């Protein structure tokens, strides 16, 4: 049976900080991009925000894995 460590490692608080930083930076970038598409038709604006709302999730998987294991990628084998 795989047990979780009793004491959290430094990676957990560091990972939480990185997640919050990622969200803040992404929000700033999306907001800056929104100013550029402000005059486009609403379907394009909706597409922009839908895509922007999904893309930020991509870097979370390796970050969460690093928080749990200390490795950025799963070992092969």
Descriptive key words:
77 residues; mainly alpha; 3 helices
3D structure, described in words:
About 65% of the residues lie in helices and about 0% in strands. By secondary structure, the protein is mainly alpha-helical. The model has no long low-confidence stretch (mean pLDDT about 85).
Brief sketch in words of this structure:
The protein contains three helices and no strands.
Count of distinct strands:
0
Class from helix and strand fractions: mainly alpha
Please state the CA-atom Rg, rounded to the nearest Å. Answer: 17 Å
What does the main sheet amount to? none
- Please report the distance between the alpha carbons of the first and last residues: 20 Å
Strand content: under 5%
Round the mean pLDDT to the nearest integer and report it.
86
Poorly predicted segments: none
Compressed to H and E, one letter per element, the order equals: HHH
How many helices does DSSP assign? 3
Question: What is the element layout, followed by pairings?
Answer:
Layout: H1 11-36, H2 42-55, H3 60-69
Helix pairs in contact: 1-3
């Amino acid at each position: 049976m795989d047990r979780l460590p009793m004491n959290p490692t430094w990676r957990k608080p560091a990972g939480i900080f990185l997640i919050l930083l990622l969200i803040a930076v992404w929000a700033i970038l999306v907001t800056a991009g929104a100013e550029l598409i402000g005059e486009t038709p609403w379907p394009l604006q909706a597409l922009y925000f839908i895509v922007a709302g999904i893309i930020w999730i991509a870097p979370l998987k390796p970050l969460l894995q690093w928080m749990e294991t200390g490795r950025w990628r799963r070992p092969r084998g």
